[in-house]
Amino acid sequence: MLRNEEDVIKLISEDDRMMEILKAAKSLQLPDWWICAGFVRSKIWDTLHDFSGRTNTPDVDVIYFDKDNLEESIEKLFEDKLRSIIPDIPWSVKNEARMHVVNKIPPYTSAVDAISKFPETATALGVKIDDTEKVILTAPCGLEDVLNLEVKPTAFFTETKARIAIYEERIIKKNWKSIWPKIKVHHI
Fold it and tell me: Is the pLDDT of residue 57 over 90?
């Protein structure tokens, strides 16, 4: 049973594949880095659904925050480096210091600030490891929704009609309920 941050950290720490992926990302030595979103959420929901195997994730999102180098081409180089370490992972690397331009919103102040502005609270999660390979978890919108199998918009995505529409479109496109039938999706 997953009840709190310690339980989630233990779950990830005991998953050899997740730790391998975290070590690969750490090897890039990116500033303010995290692996976020579905990497964490899917593991939690798989566990809460008593799945014996891991559900397929379309990508592993590695984010970081570096205001000094905003070139998208650098992100592609990091993806290539990660593919050379673990080729079978669909890596996606993004510098959140430039993503506000893509998303047409005010600049983020950090990677965790960017995570807090992801569309769903259950996806607004990140993990990384420190120098001792201890798992560190960030959940700027809390863990309650993901642990209770609830999909709700983050506060940021309830602020405008355009963001509400993006949230609703994602819910349809992702179709998470077909994978994890116990989840409850909240509409705005």
Answer: no
Q: 3-state SS of the chain: helix, strand, coil percent to 5?
A: 45, 15, 40
For residue 24, which of 64, 75, 82, 76 has the smallest C-alpha distance? 82
CB 127 within 8 A of CB 39: yes
Q: Model's pTM, two decimal places?
A: 0.96
The burial of 143, by beta-carbon neighbours within 10 Å (0-12 exposed, 13-18 middle, 19 or more buried), is given as buried
Does residue 188 have a pLDDT over 90? no
- Measured CA to CA, the distance from residue 72 to residue 61 in angstroms comes to 15
29: closest CA among 71, 82, 76, 108? 82
Query: Which homologous superfamily does the CATH classification assign to the domain defined by 5-185?
Result: Beta Polymerase, domain 2 (3.30.460.10)
CA distance 139 to 42: 15
Residue spans per domain, the chain: 5-185
Q: Indicate the length of the chain as a whole number.
A: 188
Angle between helices 16-26 and 38-48 (to 10 degrees): 170
Strand boundaries in the chain, DSSP class E: 34-36, 60-64, 91-95, 126-129, 135-138, 150-151, 184-185
**CA dist., res. 163 & res. 161, Å (int):** 5
